[in-house]
Amino acid sequence: MHATRTKQKKERSALNISLIAGLIFSLLEVIIAIYTHSQAVLLDGFYDGVESIMIIISIGIVPLLYRSSNEKRPFGYLQIESFFVVIKGFTMIAITIGLIATNIEIVLNGGRHIAFSNIAYFELFATILSMFVIFLLRKKNAKTHSALVSMEIQEWTIDAIASLGMAIAFFLPLFIKVNWFSKIVPYLDQIIAILLSLFMLPTPIRTIITGLRDIFLIAPEEETVTEIKNIINPILDSYGYKQLSYDIIRTGRKLWISVYITFDKDLISISRLRIVQHLIIEALKKEYQDFYFELLPEVEYLGNTEVR
């Protein structure tokens, strides 16, 4: 119980760091966007603002994720996390598409001149701060392995890469003075904003796909299933168990793994199965923090066959 509370406390602490940093970034980016009329910076500000709202909700649902399962809720409240992740993904996609449409409209109306150097230095500063936030979150998440915090790290990483890319792009007008480039300059901010949007889009799309798989209890991505089988199969093979079938599902951060063994004989050694199960659990612990594992004999249903 104490370990669970400690883990929960660390997870909420990490989310609080992301929340405070996100609010500061969002405020600064909106101020810079208003001052410079930059759509690219405004996009970043909107992203961080929505992200901050989502983090507040995340902090609220963390206690639910640590409640144990029961007969009424066999998977506990873990699917709430998946549901929340899907909503967050759809929100990010909607904002991104809206901002792409806005920037296309500005391009069609002749573009816009902005203070490139001011934005470039700000984005360089934002890159350094983002990397510092990533460092803090990784340190906090080293033992908790929270799906919510991992998603925050992923988003801050994207933000850092995007900020660095924007800084480089906005420095270009200061160094490139050729005629053909000067014709592009009024559209540079919108081009960067559109490219930034396209760069960000795959992440929420992947998040939605993963979340929906978890909600509908579909097996995780093939990569995860293969990795699990590669851990379990050699152990079972060494004990002569070869006829196997798997049930693998994921709800939020937790994996539920069931392995069924088909036996050729009627006699089963329970003590032997217990030893094998312990070995598999210890092997899985090296790769996964939150999982449930069971090793079971496959009992086939033979239809209307009479039992004598």
Overall geometric form: elongated
Mean pLDDT, rounded to whole units?
Answer: 84
Topology as a string of helices (H) and strands (E): HHHHHHHHEEHE
Major sheet strand order: 1-2-3
So how many helices? 9
Sheet of most strands: 3 strands, mixed
The level of helicity is over 70%
Radius of gyration: 25 Å
Structural class: mainly alpha
Percent strand equals: 5-15%
Q: State the distance separating the first and last CA atoms.
A: 48 Å
Low-pLDDT stretches are none
Report the count of strand segments: 3
Structural key phrases:
mainly alpha
What do you see in this structure?
This protein has 308 residues and is mainly alpha-helical. It has helices at residues 2-36, 39-65, 78-108, 116-144, 147-175, 179-200, 202-215, 222-238, 270-285, and strands at 244-251, 254-261, 291-297. Strands 1-2-3 form a three-stranded mixed beta sheet. β2 (254-261), α9 (270-285) and β3 form a beta-alpha-beta unit. α1 (2-36) runs antiparallel to α2, α3 packs antiparallel against α6 (179-200) and α4 packs antiparallel against α5 (147-175). The model has no long low-confidence stretch (mean pLDDT 84).
